[in-house]
Structures are given as C-alpha cells and as structure tokens.
Amino acid sequence: MSHGRSFPQGALVGVLTAEPLDRVLDYKAPEGGVSTGDFVVVPLGPRKVAGVVWGPGEGGFDPAKIRPVAGLLDVPPMRPEMREFLTRAADYTLTPLSMMLRLATRCPGLGQPPGTRDVLRRGQGAPDRMTPARARVLEVLEEHGGAGFAPGELSQLAGVSSSVLKGLEAQGALVRVPEPRDRPYDRLDGSLPGRPLSDDQTRAAEALRATVATRRYSTTLLKGVTGSGKTEVYLEAVAEALAQGRQALVLLPEIALTGAFLDRVEERFGAKPAEWHSGVTQAERRRCWNAVAEGQAQLVVGARSALFLPFRDLGLLVVDEEHDSSYKQEDGALYHARDMGVLRASISNAAVILASATPALETWANADAGKYARLDLPQRFGTASLPEMAAVDMRTDTPERGTWLSPGLVEQVRARIEAGEQSLLFLNRRGYAPLTLCRACGHQLGCTHCDARLVEHRFRKRLVCHQCGDSQPIPTDCPSCHVEGKLTAIGPGVERIAEEVTARFPDARIAVLSSDQLESARALKARIEQIAAGGADIIVGTQIVAKGHNFPLLTLVGVVDADLGLMGADLRAAERTFQLIRQVAGRAGRAERPGVALLQTYQPEHGVIRAILNGDEEAFWRAEAAAREAAGAPPYGRMAGVIINAPDEQRAFGVGRALAQNAGGLTRLGAQVFGPVAAPVARVRGRIRVRLLVKAPRGIALQAALAAWRSSVQVPSNTRVTIDIDPQSF
Ligand code: ADP
Ligand code: ZN
C-alpha cells in the first residue's frame, strides 16, 4: 500500500466511498492535487458524498466523463495502517470494503470544521411550566451534559418534537451555541503510582509492561479468576503505553461497565479517558474521533466499534472479558472484535491483552499452541477467597408447584437477609414468562411477523417478540378460540422470579437487572452503584449481572436454572454454559466475605455441571478441545455460515439449493457444505431465513473459495446472501 502517494491536479485517482457499490470510483485530482488517504468529497450522481483517496484510478473510462474531486475535508488523512486494516478485515470477513469504510468514518459531521454546527445545552433559565415532555428533555441534558446535543438528536433521545425544544429555548432553559472547538481531553499521567500489587499481580504487570515496551505486536491472554485484579494489572500496561507516548484502547463488552471503569482510570491516572459507544452523544463522539485522529486522546474506552477509530499510534489494545459474545457484531459487517483487534494490533505494532476469567476456547487453544502468551492470576486479591460451589438437586429439593426456587435455596437467601448480606438470583431469561398458552384450546401466543413466541413482560404490561421487538398489550381472551381468562403464563423469566421472592420476602428490597430495561448508561451505573452500596437485599438478573460488576456485600449466588444453556445442539453450548455460570458465580464473596454459589439443576451428574462445580478448568478445556478437534470444529477446523434472507421460502430455498449444487470448488478443497435448512428462527419481520453451513479444514484459502462460490449463483431481487465467517452459533 503506497504511503501518502500524491497525485497532481488532473491525475486519475481511485476514491472509496461508504456507498454500497463495492468498488473504488475514478475521479480527477482537483487543483492542488490530493494524496492517498485524503478525505475528500466527490460527486456521485446528483449527490456529493465523502470518501477516501484509495490510490491511483483504474482508468478505462472515457476521460472526458470523469469528474473532478469536489473538495478536501478538513480531517487528518487516513493512515496507511488503517487502510491496510480495512482491506484485510474486508477480505477476512467477506464484507464489501465500502461497508468497512462506513465503520471507520462514523464520525458525526465528519470533516465539517468545528464551530460550524450548533448544539443545544442547558441554559440558566427555568421553564415556566413543567410538562412531562419538557422534563424528559431536561433529564436527557442532565444525564449527558458534555459537549451538548445536535437538535435532532436531542428531540430523538427525549422522544419530543422540535417545538418542545423551541419552547424551552425561548425560555432560556436551553441555549443554542456553536459546537465548541478543540476541547482537548485532560492529560492522563502515566507516571502516577498505582496501588501496591500482590506478587502475582506484580509478575503479570511487569510481563505486560515489557510486551508494550517492545513496541511490537504480541497477544497475551491474561487469565485471572474474578476478583484477582485483572483490571489493576492491565492498567499497568496502559501506564507503559502512556509512558511511550502511544495510544491505548480498552474494549468492554457492556456499556454499563464503562462508568465504573472511567472512575478507575481517573483514580489511577488523574483524568478520565475518551469514551466511544452508542450511549455517547454525537458531539462527544465527534470530539473523540477527532482527538483520536490527532493523537490527543491517549486512552479510549469503548465498545467493539472503537476498533475502527483513526488512532494515530495505537500501542496497546485490551479486550476485557474477551470471551463475551457481544464482541461479535451480528448485523451489517459480521466481525468479531477480538479477532479484528488482533489484526488491527498486528498492523499497528501494538500489544494485545485478552483478559478473562473464562477465556473463549479459541483463545485458550491459541495460548496452548504458543501463538499467544499467557499469564495467570489464580487467586483473588487480598484475603478474598473464591466462592464455594454446590449443586441443588431439583429432583429431591423440588420447588412447590408454581414456584421456581428450591426450599434449600430459599433458606440460604433468608440466612443472607438476616446477616445483612446480598443474594443474587440469576436466570438468563428476560421478561415474566417465556410462553403464554391458552388452557382452553392450547394455542400459544406468537409473533405475527416472526416464528417466535411472544414473551410476557409484566412490568411493561405487554407481550414482546424478542426477535423483532414488536409488542402488544396482554389480551384477556385467547386470540384463537376467544375464550376469556384462560391465558396462562408458562415458565419463569426474571420478572417472575422477582415476583416469587417478593411474595416470600415481602420486607426485602428487591432489584431486577435485566438487559432489556430502557435505561441510559448513566442511570444504570447509578443503580448498580446503589446496589453495590447495599441498596438491595436480593438482586434478580439476566446475563447483564454476570459481567464484571463488584458487589461487596454479595455472598450468595443462586443459579435458578443451570441446565438452561445445555439444551439445543449448538456446538458452543457447553462452553457458554461453563463461562456464564462460572462468571456469575464469581460475583459472590468479593470483598472479604466468603461466598457460595448454588446451581439448581435436574442433572447434577452432567459433565458440564460437574466441571463447573469442581472448578478443574484445564480439564474442561482439554475435554472440550478434544471434542471439537474430533468433530473438525473451530478452532481446529474452520466454519462459515451462509444466511439467505428472502421475502419468501421459494426464493430463499432456490438460492440455497443453487449454492449447494455449485459447491464443487469448495469440496475440491476438502470443505463440506451442509444445507440448505430453515434457520433456527426461520421467519423474522416477515422475511424468510435459510442457512447453509460450510466446514473446512484449516490452511485452505477459504475466503477466496467462498467469494467465488457466492458469486457463482444468481441472486434474485430483494434477496440477500450473507456469509458469516467463524459464526458464533451453529
Ligand atoms: P477482576 O477484573 O480480575 O475481576 P478487579 O481488577 O476488578 O478484578 O479487582 C477486584 C477487586 O480487588 C477490586 O475491588 C479492586 O479494586 C481490588 N484490587 C485488585 N487489586 C488490588 C490491589 N493491588 N490493591 C488494592 N485493591 C485491589
Ligand atoms: Zn417478531
């Protein structure tokens, strides 16, 4: 890839835009010339769109028809590392390069000079009359503050019309100001002393500092039990990157964790880092993007999309809770942030730290094979010990009819309440009940657009489709037989468990933490802090509670249904169950109070449950690895999913069968093609999904073969074929 090659006025240049064209377009360099990497504006049909000069033009068109570049954007040029990263990520994931560019140019108002846009901020004035709509606007302002809001964004976030904003503006409760220019982030001071570390921590921290100091690519698995102080340790690696004058990026799997992390960074380095995720306002994101490009932002904490920020000199990437499935982007460009992070770092000569108590099997295997270094923190920090784990055998310790908690678990919760300690009841199911059934005719309530059941959400008083998000009020009579009062909720979700504990412990303070609550990151952080400070006796939660929160008073974790994730044929079922339950159990007994984790199960002798209980992780990984290897499954073989999304079954299966018949190129390389079959949820939002699965040995040029295969088949209009490299579930 040429580095900043320049093209004089009139020379033919290739410009990549984020338009879905999947090709670089030819233009003429404008007056003053352009260089590779420059952000430009080019005419496209009647429009003008932003793009990046990608290299020399291809030529071959009538030179008279080639239009000149319309202008340059005031943005630091895209660096060669970024162009290489986007190219290789596109090749690896079989995603059009234009779609990758879109990820890399997600800066609101890209290239508009600062100060040319107006933002709305809280003013001194008070509204003359407080309406619910006005209150919501003020609440949003209160929550985000910072750089202010683009007017459209504010009305959207608050769910109010622009006239509400105008009213507030007229009264001085809102003021319109030019977007502030160049508000630099406060300097982080890498030379401030950290907390004294334990011997294990010191060893790990020194090893990590050394890898950053090489200024070369490397990946290290930092495997440490929950509470071992992984964060404390990788912040030392961040300190080293700061000392080197290089930038660092920390990825977190959950926005709700960033608040606590920002505080920890501030405590360690004296200032807050830049933040990048969907909960950050446009103006803040723009500020972050620009400061990252200019090298002014030293540390960014963010979601997976932060990988596509234009770092000037990335020296360290940390992927915290690296096993977390939310790192896989499941729509648009299908990429895994861990794997793309390793690619990004290898191009930028950066060190990677993958931190987890329960690494992904892929990561474990890479460390086992010596591709990644590995550091272990086998003990909790200080005197804290790991929770004791035990099974509750539901065949003998059976809950009463219509309840879900065994007498044994209920007694343990009671004992915690009496001791002034907290209990966490974990069930990875949102809502009140997963199924609503008519006891008169047997009809099950389903979504009209999807092959999915409607899930009752009693707090919201609605039935919700977890596939498409559509919802409706809970009916009183059956939509099928119209008999009244026979609709019955079957099975528990977290809301139902909360109802049960409320009935059993009417005086206890109960908090429900579920991933579907419509809360801002800040409100959620406040609620989590309140729980951590002792503001609840019983926490009932979905997988959101499994991730990295510290609850010092929590001494009991009850897993309501340890068998839940073991059902189904998914190859990762065992791994996921193991990770999730170990992770959630790790919440117990953090501070200096010993903890207990109780697993309600109907199959205590199941291999995975036994492995969770006895804690012999290496044995579990070895057994899993052996099973995967025998099946030729990842990471020992390769897989790709093909998803065909069509308006009807005929078109979907037509394309699927054509692909299956055309698979000679793949099978000659030793790959196998399975399907087409209907996807697990075959109909979503009224569209049909059909899948094929490709299994291939390692070491073949799989992507090239897949690309050729896909283009060998005619795809009818309104039908999409997506290839998912390394699918997370199959
Ligand atoms: P992990 O990420 O491995 O679960 P954390 O880094 O969150 O662990 O640390 C767990 C708890 O132990 C935190 O409350 C943290 O502040 C504390 N801790 C860890 N290491 C130290 C240390 N060296 N000195 C003081 N407190 C520590
Ligand atoms: Zn639906």
From TrEMBL:
Residues 178-189 have a biased composition (Basic and acidic residues). Residues 108-129, 178-201 are annotated as: Disordered. Zn(2+) 1 binds at C438, C441, C478, C481. InterPro entries: DEAD/DEAH_box_helicase_dom (IPR011545), Helicase_ATP-bd (IPR014001), Helicase_C-like (IPR001650), P-loop_NTPase (IPR027417), PriA (IPR005259), PriA_3primeBD (IPR041222), PriA_3primeBD_sf (IPR042115), PriA_C (IPR041236). It catalyses: ATP + H2O = ADP + phosphate + H(+); Couples ATP hydrolysis with the unwinding of duplex DNA by translocating in the 3'-5' direction. Residues 211-377 form the Helicase ATP-binding domain. GO terms for biological process: DNA recombination; DNA replication initiation; DNA replication, synthesis of primer; double-strand break repair. Its EC number is 5.6.2.4. GO terms for molecular function: 3'-5' DNA helicase activity; ATP binding; DNA binding; hydrolase activity; zinc ion binding. SMART domains: DEXDc, HELICc. Zn(2+) 2 binds at C447, C450, C465, C468. Component of the replication restart primosome. Belongs to the helicase family. PriA subfamily. PANTHER family: PRIMOSOMAL PROTEIN N (PTHR30580). Initiates the restart of stalled replication forks, which reloads the replicative helicase on sites other than the origin of replication. Recognizes and binds to abandoned replication forks and remodels them to uncover a helicase loading site. Promotes assembly of the primosome at these replication forks. This is Replication restart protein PriA. It comes from Halovulum marinum. The lineage of its organism: Bacteria, Pseudomonadati, Pseudomonadota, Alphaproteobacteria, Rhodobacterales. The gene is priA.
